[in-house]
Amino acid sequence: MTAAAPTRAPSASASVSRGALLVAALVVVLAGLCLVSIAYGALRVPVGDVARTLFGDPPTTRIDHVVWSVRVPRTILGIAAGAALGLSGAVMQAITRNPLADPGILGVSAGATFAIVLAVGSLGVGSLYGYIWFGFAGALAAGAVVYALGGLGRSGSTPVKLALAGVAVTAMLNSFTNGIVLTDPEALNRYRFWSAGSLAGQDAGVVKQVLPFLVVGAILALACAPALNSLALGDDVAAALGRRIAWVRFAAAAAITLLTGGAVAVIGPVVFVGLVVPHMARILARAAGIGPDQRWLLPLSALLASCLLLAADLAGRLIARPVEIQAGVLVAVIGGPFFIALVRRRRLAEV
Protein backbone atom coordinates (compact mmCIF):
# COMPACT_ATOMS: atom_id res chain seq x y z
CA MET A 1 0.00 0.00 0.00
CA THR A 2 1.22 3.45 -0.80
CA ALA A 3 1.67 5.71 2.20
CA ALA A 4 -0.38 8.90 2.17
CA ALA A 5 1.58 12.04 1.51
CA PRO A 6 2.09 14.13 4.64
CA THR A 7 0.02 17.26 4.94
CA ARG A 8 2.14 20.35 4.67
CA ALA A 9 1.68 23.14 7.17
CA PRO A 10 0.51 26.44 5.71
CA SER A 11 3.32 28.77 4.75
CA ALA A 12 4.05 31.97 6.62
CA SER A 13 2.88 34.06 3.67
CA ALA A 14 -0.43 32.14 3.57
CA SER A 15 -0.97 32.76 7.30
CA VAL A 16 -0.26 36.45 6.84
CA SER A 17 -2.71 36.65 3.95
CA ARG A 18 -5.42 34.87 5.93
CA GLY A 19 -4.80 37.04 8.98
CA ALA A 20 -4.92 40.24 6.94
CA LEU A 21 -8.14 39.10 5.26
CA LEU A 22 -9.74 38.31 8.61
CA VAL A 23 -8.72 41.68 10.06
CA ALA A 24 -10.03 43.46 6.94
CA ALA A 25 -13.37 41.64 7.25
CA LEU A 26 -13.73 42.71 10.89
CA VAL A 27 -12.86 46.31 9.96
CA VAL A 28 -15.68 46.26 7.40
CA VAL A 29 -18.10 44.88 10.00
CA LEU A 30 -16.99 47.54 12.49
CA ALA A 31 -17.44 50.30 9.89
CA GLY A 32 -20.99 49.09 9.23
CA LEU A 33 -21.75 49.08 12.95
CA CYS A 34 -20.39 52.61 13.25
CA LEU A 35 -22.71 53.83 10.48
CA VAL A 36 -25.72 52.14 12.10
CA SER A 37 -24.71 53.44 15.53
CA ILE A 38 -24.70 57.01 14.22
CA ALA A 39 -27.99 56.59 12.36
CA TYR A 40 -30.18 54.84 14.95
CA GLY A 41 -31.33 55.77 18.42
CA ALA A 42 -34.13 57.71 20.06
CA LEU A 43 -34.06 59.90 16.92
CA ARG A 44 -33.59 57.96 13.70
CA VAL A 45 -31.37 59.72 11.17
CA PRO A 46 -31.52 58.38 7.58
CA VAL A 47 -28.23 56.92 6.39
CA GLY A 48 -28.11 59.40 3.53
CA ASP A 49 -28.44 62.32 5.96
CA VAL A 50 -25.68 60.81 8.11
CA ALA A 51 -23.35 60.66 5.10
CA ARG A 52 -24.16 64.27 4.11
CA THR A 53 -23.62 65.47 7.68
CA LEU A 54 -20.30 63.68 8.05
CA PHE A 55 -19.04 65.18 4.80
CA GLY A 56 -20.02 68.76 5.62
CA ASP A 57 -23.55 69.30 4.24
CA PRO A 58 -26.04 68.63 7.08
CA PRO A 59 -29.75 68.69 6.13
CA THR A 60 -30.77 70.46 9.36
CA THR A 61 -29.12 71.99 12.40
CA ARG A 62 -30.80 69.41 14.63
CA ILE A 63 -29.38 66.46 12.68
CA ASP A 64 -25.96 68.12 12.64
CA HIS A 65 -26.07 68.47 16.44
CA VAL A 66 -27.27 64.89 17.02
CA VAL A 67 -24.62 63.41 14.73
CA TRP A 68 -21.58 65.41 15.79
CA SER A 69 -22.34 66.19 19.44
CA VAL A 70 -23.98 62.92 20.52
CA ARG A 71 -23.63 59.99 18.13
CA VAL A 72 -20.08 60.41 16.79
CA PRO A 73 -18.43 60.83 20.25
CA ARG A 74 -20.49 57.92 21.58
CA THR A 75 -19.44 55.71 18.66
CA ILE A 76 -15.77 56.65 18.97
CA LEU A 77 -15.90 55.94 22.70
CA GLY A 78 -17.49 52.55 22.01
CA ILE A 79 -14.72 51.66 19.57
CA ALA A 80 -11.95 52.85 21.89
CA ALA A 81 -13.33 51.37 25.11
CA GLY A 82 -14.23 48.08 23.47
CA ALA A 83 -10.79 47.73 21.89
CA ALA A 84 -9.17 48.60 25.24
CA LEU A 85 -11.13 45.94 27.14
CA GLY A 86 -10.54 43.32 24.46
CA LEU A 87 -6.82 44.00 24.28
CA SER A 88 -6.41 44.02 28.04
CA GLY A 89 -8.24 40.70 28.33
CA ALA A 90 -6.12 39.06 25.64
CA VAL A 91 -2.89 40.32 27.23
CA MET A 92 -4.07 39.23 30.68
CA GLN A 93 -4.82 35.69 29.53
CA ALA A 94 -1.52 35.47 27.67
CA ILE A 95 0.67 36.80 30.48
CA THR A 96 -0.95 34.58 33.12
CA ARG A 97 -1.39 31.59 30.78
CA ASN A 98 -4.86 31.29 32.29
CA PRO A 99 -7.79 31.08 29.82
CA LEU A 100 -10.24 32.16 32.53
CA ALA A 101 -8.29 35.30 33.49
CA ASP A 102 -10.00 38.67 33.35
CA PRO A 103 -8.60 42.23 33.52
CA GLY A 104 -10.25 42.65 36.90
CA ILE A 105 -7.88 40.07 38.33
CA LEU A 106 -5.16 42.74 38.64
CA GLY A 107 -7.44 44.96 40.71
CA VAL A 108 -7.54 47.68 38.03
CA SER A 109 -11.34 47.85 37.80
CA ALA A 110 -11.67 47.80 41.58
CA GLY A 111 -9.08 50.57 41.88
CA ALA A 112 -10.91 52.82 39.41
CA THR A 113 -14.25 52.14 41.08
CA PHE A 114 -12.96 52.92 44.57
CA ALA A 115 -11.24 56.14 43.47
CA ILE A 116 -14.36 57.43 41.69
CA VAL A 117 -16.65 56.63 44.60
CA LEU A 118 -14.15 58.23 46.98
CA ALA A 119 -13.97 61.38 44.83
CA VAL A 120 -17.76 61.72 44.65
CA GLY A 121 -18.63 60.65 48.18
CA SER A 122 -15.79 62.11 50.24
CA LEU A 123 -14.23 64.90 48.17
CA GLY A 124 -17.40 66.28 46.61
CA VAL A 125 -16.25 65.98 42.99
CA GLY A 126 -19.43 66.24 40.92
CA SER A 127 -18.37 66.41 37.28
CA LEU A 128 -17.12 63.65 35.04
CA TYR A 129 -14.19 65.88 34.08
CA GLY A 130 -13.17 65.82 37.72
CA TYR A 131 -13.60 62.24 38.79
CA ILE A 132 -12.35 60.60 35.58
CA TRP A 133 -8.82 61.46 36.70
CA PHE A 134 -9.44 59.96 40.13
CA GLY A 135 -10.63 56.78 38.45
CA PHE A 136 -7.60 56.61 36.27
CA ALA A 137 -5.25 57.34 39.17
CA GLY A 138 -6.97 54.64 41.23
CA ALA A 139 -6.53 52.13 38.42
CA LEU A 140 -2.85 52.98 38.08
CA ALA A 141 -2.28 52.81 41.83
CA ALA A 142 -4.07 49.47 42.18
CA GLY A 143 -2.12 47.99 39.27
CA ALA A 144 1.16 49.21 40.76
CA VAL A 145 0.31 47.77 44.20
CA VAL A 146 -0.63 44.40 42.70
CA TYR A 147 2.56 44.25 40.66
CA ALA A 148 4.66 45.23 43.69
CA LEU A 149 3.02 42.59 45.88
CA GLY A 150 3.34 39.98 43.15
CA GLY A 151 7.05 40.70 42.86
CA LEU A 152 7.87 40.11 46.53
CA GLY A 153 10.05 37.15 47.39
CA ARG A 154 13.16 35.58 45.92
CA SER A 155 11.40 34.19 42.85
CA GLY A 156 10.12 37.62 41.77
CA SER A 157 6.81 38.11 40.01
CA THR A 158 5.08 35.01 38.68
CA PRO A 159 1.63 34.58 37.09
CA VAL A 160 0.26 32.84 40.18
CA LYS A 161 1.57 35.46 42.59
CA LEU A 162 0.23 38.29 40.43
CA ALA A 163 -3.19 36.63 40.32
CA LEU A 164 -3.29 36.09 44.08
CA ALA A 165 -2.20 39.66 44.75
CA GLY A 166 -4.88 40.92 42.36
CA VAL A 167 -7.61 38.93 44.10
CA ALA A 168 -6.54 40.20 47.52
CA VAL A 169 -6.37 43.85 46.44
CA THR A 170 -9.71 43.59 44.62
CA ALA A 171 -11.45 42.17 47.69
CA MET A 172 -10.01 44.90 49.90
CA LEU A 173 -10.96 47.74 47.52
CA ASN A 174 -14.47 46.38 46.99
CA SER A 175 -15.06 46.36 50.74
CA PHE A 176 -13.88 50.00 50.98
CA THR A 177 -16.13 50.97 48.04
CA ASN A 178 -19.18 49.33 49.61
CA GLY A 179 -18.48 51.10 52.89
CA ILE A 180 -18.49 54.53 51.20
CA VAL A 181 -21.51 53.82 49.00
CA LEU A 182 -23.69 52.56 51.84
CA THR A 183 -23.10 55.70 53.90
CA ASP A 184 -23.47 58.31 51.12
CA PRO A 185 -26.74 58.51 49.12
CA GLU A 186 -25.20 60.73 46.40
CA ALA A 187 -22.31 58.35 45.86
CA LEU A 188 -24.79 55.46 45.78
CA ASN A 189 -26.91 57.10 43.06
CA ARG A 190 -23.91 57.82 40.86
CA TYR A 191 -22.40 54.42 41.52
CA ARG A 192 -25.57 52.52 40.55
CA PHE A 193 -25.64 54.08 37.06
CA TRP A 194 -21.90 54.07 36.46
CA SER A 195 -21.40 50.51 37.66
CA ALA A 196 -23.87 49.18 35.04
CA GLY A 197 -21.54 50.24 32.22
CA SER A 198 -22.82 52.72 29.61
CA LEU A 199 -21.61 54.80 26.66
CA ALA A 200 -24.40 57.35 27.16
CA GLY A 201 -23.82 60.91 28.32
CA GLN A 202 -20.20 61.27 27.18
CA ASP A 203 -19.20 64.14 24.92
CA ALA A 204 -16.21 64.79 22.68
CA GLY A 205 -14.26 66.41 25.52
CA VAL A 206 -14.31 63.21 27.57
CA VAL A 207 -13.25 61.17 24.56
CA LYS A 208 -10.31 63.50 23.92
CA GLN A 209 -9.21 63.24 27.55
CA VAL A 210 -9.18 59.45 27.76
CA LEU A 211 -8.13 58.59 24.18
CA PRO A 212 -4.37 59.32 24.60
CA PHE A 213 -4.13 56.87 27.51
CA LEU A 214 -5.94 54.17 25.56
CA VAL A 215 -3.73 54.72 22.51
CA VAL A 216 -0.55 54.43 24.59
CA GLY A 217 -1.87 51.29 26.26
CA ALA A 218 -2.80 49.75 22.90
CA ILE A 219 0.63 50.46 21.42
CA LEU A 220 2.31 48.96 24.47
CA ALA A 221 0.08 45.86 24.33
CA LEU A 222 0.71 45.28 20.62
CA ALA A 223 4.44 45.75 21.14
CA CYS A 224 4.35 42.90 23.70
CA ALA A 225 2.87 40.41 21.20
CA PRO A 226 6.15 38.73 20.09
CA ALA A 227 7.28 38.37 23.71
CA LEU A 228 3.91 36.90 24.68
CA ASN A 229 4.40 34.23 22.01
CA SER A 230 7.69 33.33 23.67
CA LEU A 231 6.17 33.27 27.16
CA ALA A 232 3.58 30.76 25.94
CA LEU A 233 6.46 28.27 25.65
CA GLY A 234 7.39 28.74 29.31
CA ASP A 235 9.61 31.15 31.22
CA ASP A 236 12.76 29.07 30.74
CA VAL A 237 12.33 28.85 26.97
CA ALA A 238 11.45 32.54 26.73
CA ALA A 239 14.58 33.46 28.71
CA ALA A 240 16.67 31.20 26.46
CA LEU A 241 15.25 33.08 23.46
CA GLY A 242 16.52 36.33 24.94
CA ARG A 243 13.30 37.67 26.47
CA ARG A 244 13.58 39.71 29.65
CA ILE A 245 10.78 38.08 31.63
CA ALA A 246 10.43 40.73 34.33
CA TRP A 247 10.34 43.54 31.77
CA VAL A 248 7.74 41.75 29.64
CA ARG A 249 5.47 41.24 32.65
CA PHE A 250 5.92 44.85 33.73
CA ALA A 251 5.10 46.16 30.22
CA ALA A 252 2.06 43.86 30.00
CA ALA A 253 0.82 44.98 33.43
CA ALA A 254 1.27 48.63 32.43
CA ALA A 255 -0.71 48.06 29.22
CA ILE A 256 -3.52 46.31 31.11
CA THR A 257 -3.63 49.14 33.65
CA LEU A 258 -3.81 51.88 31.01
CA LEU A 259 -6.38 50.10 28.86
CA THR A 260 -8.69 48.82 31.59
CA GLY A 261 -8.29 51.85 33.84
CA GLY A 262 -9.02 54.31 31.04
CA ALA A 263 -12.07 52.41 29.80
CA VAL A 264 -13.53 51.72 33.23
CA ALA A 265 -13.08 55.33 34.36
CA VAL A 266 -15.33 56.52 31.51
CA ILE A 267 -17.90 53.78 30.82
CA GLY A 268 -17.83 51.76 34.04
CA PRO A 269 -16.78 48.17 34.76
CA VAL A 270 -18.24 46.34 31.73
CA VAL A 271 -17.91 42.61 32.42
CA PHE A 272 -17.26 39.68 30.08
CA VAL A 273 -15.68 41.69 27.24
CA GLY A 274 -12.11 41.01 28.33
CA LEU A 275 -13.01 37.46 29.31
CA VAL A 276 -15.00 36.18 26.31
CA VAL A 277 -13.63 38.15 23.35
CA PRO A 278 -10.10 36.61 23.39
CA HIS A 279 -11.71 33.16 23.13
CA MET A 280 -13.80 34.36 20.19
CA ALA A 281 -10.61 35.65 18.57
CA ARG A 282 -8.92 32.27 19.02
CA ILE A 283 -11.88 30.49 17.45
CA LEU A 284 -11.73 32.76 14.39
CA ALA A 285 -7.95 32.47 14.17
CA ARG A 286 -8.12 28.70 14.36
CA ALA A 287 -10.83 28.59 11.68
CA ALA A 288 -8.69 30.82 9.44
CA GLY A 289 -5.61 28.64 9.96
CA ILE A 290 -3.60 31.38 11.67
CA GLY A 291 -2.90 29.58 14.93
CA PRO A 292 -2.32 31.01 18.43
CA ASP A 293 -0.11 33.87 17.28
CA GLN A 294 -0.51 36.87 19.59
CA ARG A 295 0.48 39.20 16.74
CA TRP A 296 -2.90 38.35 15.20
CA LEU A 297 -4.90 37.51 18.32
CA LEU A 298 -4.40 40.95 19.90
CA PRO A 299 -5.73 43.03 16.96
CA LEU A 300 -8.52 40.49 16.42
CA SER A 301 -9.51 40.82 20.09
CA ALA A 302 -9.53 44.61 19.82
CA LEU A 303 -11.75 44.60 16.73
CA LEU A 304 -14.14 41.95 18.06
CA ALA A 305 -14.51 43.75 21.38
CA SER A 306 -15.29 47.05 19.62
CA CYS A 307 -17.93 45.29 17.51
CA LEU A 308 -19.44 43.62 20.59
CA LEU A 309 -19.64 46.81 22.65
CA LEU A 310 -21.08 48.88 19.79
CA ALA A 311 -23.64 46.18 18.99
CA ALA A 312 -24.68 45.98 22.65
CA ASP A 313 -24.97 49.77 22.91
CA LEU A 314 -27.03 49.92 19.71
CA ALA A 315 -29.32 47.13 20.88
CA GLY A 316 -29.82 48.93 24.19
CA ARG A 317 -30.97 52.03 22.33
CA LEU A 318 -33.43 50.16 20.10
CA ILE A 319 -34.96 47.55 22.42
CA ALA A 320 -36.63 49.96 24.87
CA ARG A 321 -36.95 53.21 22.92
CA PRO A 322 -37.15 56.02 23.92
CA VAL A 323 -35.34 54.89 27.10
CA GLU A 324 -32.08 52.95 26.98
CA ILE A 325 -30.67 49.77 28.45
CA GLN A 326 -27.02 50.16 29.47
CA ALA A 327 -24.52 48.44 27.21
CA GLY A 328 -22.91 46.69 30.17
CA VAL A 329 -26.19 44.90 30.95
CA LEU A 330 -26.56 43.59 27.40
CA VAL A 331 -22.90 42.57 27.18
CA ALA A 332 -23.45 40.46 30.29
CA VAL A 333 -26.59 38.94 28.74
CA ILE A 334 -24.66 38.09 25.56
CA GLY A 335 -21.38 37.10 27.18
CA GLY A 336 -22.72 35.00 30.05
CA PRO A 337 -24.36 32.21 28.01
CA PHE A 338 -21.52 32.28 25.47
CA PHE A 339 -18.93 31.77 28.16
CA ILE A 340 -20.94 29.01 29.87
CA ALA A 341 -21.22 27.19 26.54
CA LEU A 342 -17.52 27.73 25.93
CA VAL A 343 -16.59 26.20 29.27
CA ARG A 344 -18.96 23.25 28.83
CA ARG A 345 -18.11 22.34 25.24
CA ARG A 346 -14.44 23.17 24.88
CA ARG A 347 -11.44 22.02 26.81
CA LEU A 348 -9.72 25.23 27.90
CA ALA A 349 -6.00 24.56 27.68
CA GLU A 350 -3.43 27.05 28.85
CA VAL A 351 -2.95 29.94 26.44
Describe this structure in words.
The protein has helices at 12-39, 47-54, 61-96, 108-121, 128-150, 159-183, 185-194, 204-223, 225-231, 235-240, 245-267, 273-288, 294-319, 327-345. With 351 residues, it is mainly alpha-helical. It has one domain (26-345): Orthogonal Bundle (ABC transporter involved in vitamin B12 uptake, BtuC). The radius of gyration is 21 Å and the shape is globular. It starts with 11 loop residues before the first helix and ends in a 6-residue tail after the last helix. Mean pLDDT is 83; it is low at 1-9. It is a multi-pass membrane protein. The chain crosses the membrane at residues 21-43, 75-92, 104-125, 131-150, 162-182, 210-234, 246-276, 296-315, 327-344.
Quick overview of this protein structure:
Belongs to the binding-protein-dependent transport system permease family. FecCD subfamily. It is a multi-pass membrane protein. By secondary structure, the protein is mainly alpha-helical.
